[in-house]
Design goal:
Number of helices: 6
Strand order of the largest sheet: 1-2-3-7-6-5-4
Shape: globular
Radius of gyration: 16 Å
Distance between the termini: 33 Å
Structural class: alpha+beta
Largest sheet: 7 strands, antiparallel
Length: 180
């Protein structure tokens, strides 16, 4: 329970730090310009990792997903808790996307890079997970275009959790490719 609370607090702390930020409407950066299709494609995090996927990744049954969102930062959350009340396993999938935020909101890539910079100590950069990815305190963090995915599963110091996060990240990346 403490691990889940830590992950949630960490993410919302970063989220609220950016809630008052906006980009200058006069500045246009071509690499951050999205096509009209990308702007309109609203994806749910429970589509990136389904209940069935979560059960496979955790190796046990999970309850129905708990969902929440913070539109001010374009974030949607999907939390899978184990059906067995004595289990400490969980899978938390967060997705920040341009299609879910206000037009003048901070781009998901800026949020991702701020978190990446803040996690510079103890961060492990990864290849093969979208444009950029890393594992650090809180889970795996993935950036693909202007989709920022964060997945938590427990203490990232534990090798089995790191492997679970990589498997979950691959599932999320593969499903995002299908959904876009």
């Amino acid at each position: 329970m403490k691990h889940r609370l830590c992950i949630i607090v960490l993410f919302f702390g970063f989220s609220f730090a950016f809630s008052g930020c906006s980009t200058d409407k006069g500045e246009t950066e071509p690499e951050k310009t999205l096509s009209q299709t990308q702007r309109l494609t609203l994806i749910e995090p429970c589509e990136l990792i389904t209940k069935s996927d979560a059960e496979s990744l955790l190796g046990e049954s999970v309850k129905a997903a708990e969902k929440s969102e913070q539109k001010v930062v374009g974030m949607k959350l999907c939390m899978y808790n184990p059906a067995d009340e004595t289990s400490e396993s969980f899978l938390q999938v967060m997705l920040t996307q341009q299609a879910f935020m206000k037009p003048d909101g901070v781009p998901p890539s800026d949020i991702f890079h701020s978190i990446k910079e803040a996690q510079s100590e103890g961060r492990t950069d990864l290849e093969g997970f979208g444009d950029e990815a890393f594992i650090a305190t809180g889970g795996i963090y993935i950036l693909i275009d202007e989709y920022y995915i964060s997945i938590g599963a427990g203490n990232t110091d534990r090798p089995q959790i790191r492997e679970r996060l990589k498997a979950a990240g691959k599932t999320a990346v593969d499903n995002l490719a299908i959904l876009r």
